[in-house]
Write a structure and sequence with these properties.
This protein is α/β, with parallel strands linked by helices. It is built from 12 helices and 8 strands. It folds into 2 domains: 163 residues, NAD(P)-binding Rossmann-like Domain (Rossmann fold, 3-Layer(aba) Sandwich), CATH 3.40.50.720; 115 residues, N-(1-d-carboxylethyl)-l-norvaline Dehydrogenase, domain 2 (Orthogonal Bundle). Bound molecules: ligand FVH.
């Protein structure tokens, strides 16, 4: 049986520990503030007083803390004691932080796997949870079955920064979705439509628009920006969205940013192109 050390029992770490215990693993848990996640005790967790105690007998050390600073503060003093173990870092971080952590691990003979959790705590262990992994492929394969208890495991490459890159890119997509949804809700509510009622219209609309993303992706890859609605038309249509937004006292930052991107493309002579062309403004071709 794999012996797991779980460092960090926040909202996410406590769920990660729970599914391992329910799956029959031996789990030693540590959290900076003692007494967190008391329900883990009944599931058979071993409470460790220090990170050092938690990792002592572990083959697999899983870390899920607030950020990279916290992770380094906890792991740095453990460097020599982690030697030969697999360290799976599920703390959210940047690709550069993941690569720096991988170098640190390599310097101390620690097998390093970086992870990006594409799930909320309630989703851990449920069918829709996805966890991206990158780094030491052999270490990942050795522990794949155990890691699968968190959610569907997907290894995305040897570059230890790749899971973080994809994680942050996916979260960026989510930010756009939620920001747009909240902006839309604010406008609808100003017009007397309750948020819940409006969500009944909004969700199927966004679902239908999601269906256009693969075509946009193809246009970006092939640099053939034709076939969709023209930017020349859309930049004018945005005037109405912005005006209505202003009339309702709603912040227009999101819409004016989008319109600015469109206008830059139109001014550069790409008014006949579709939305995919915005990629050149968001990330100019070098
Ligand atoms: N919760 C979510 O929806 C998202 C889903 C996707 C992945 N994220 C990332 O997961 C990391 C942990 O998030 P979390 O939800 O568990 O966060 P908290 O509930 O706030 O728990 C934070 C834990 O980190 C400990 N901690 C913070 N600073 C330190 C430190 N300097 N030394 C030691 N431990 C530290 C904190 O301990 P305590 O405050 O209880 O003593 C918690 O255990 C995160 O990267 C998300 O982006 C979650």
């Amino acid at each position: 049986m794999t012996r797991i050390a779980m460092l960090g029992l926040g909202a996410m770490g406590s769920e990660l520990a729970r599914v391992q215990l329910e799956g029959g693993a031996s789990v030693a848990v540590w959290n900076r503030t003692p007494g967190k996640a008391p329900s883990l005790d009944a599931l058979g967790a071993t409470r460790a007083a220090t990170p050092d105690d938690a990792i002592r007998d572990a083959d697999l050390v899983v870390v899920c803390l607030s950020n990279d600073d916290a992770t380094r503060a906890v792991l740095d003093p453990l460097a020599t004691r982690l030697r030969g173990k697999t360290l799976v870092n599920l703390t959210n971080g940047t690709p550069a932080q993941a690569r720096r952590m991988a170098r640190w691990a390599s310097d101390h003979d620690v097998r390093y796997v970086d992870g990006g959790i594409m799930a909320t705590p309630e989703m851990i262990g449920a069918p829709h949870a996805l966890v991206l992994y990158a780094g030491d492929a052999a270490a990942f394969e050795q522990h794949r079955d155990v890691l699968a208890r968190f959610g569907a495991p997907r290894f995305v490459g040897d570059d230890p920064g790749r899971a973080a890159l994809l994680d942050l890119a996916l979260l960026t997509g989510m930010c756009g979705l939620f920001a747009g949804a909240l902006q839309a809700i604010a406008m609808a509510r100003h017009g007397g439509v309750a948020a819940e009622e409006f969500a009944g219209l909004l969700v199927p609309w966004l679902h239908a628009m999601n269906g256009l993303v693969p075509a946009i992706a193809t246009s970006v890859d092939t640099r053939r920006f034709e076939g969709g609605s023209s930017l020349a038309m859309q930049v004018l249509a945005l005037d109405n969205l912005i005006e209505a937004s202003r009339e309702s006292g709603t912040d227009t930052t999101l819409l004016t940013t989008m319109q600015g991107w469109m206008r830059a493309c139109v001014d550069a002579g790409h008014g006949a192109d579709d939305l995919g062309r915005l990629i050149d403004v968001i990330r100019p071709v070098s």
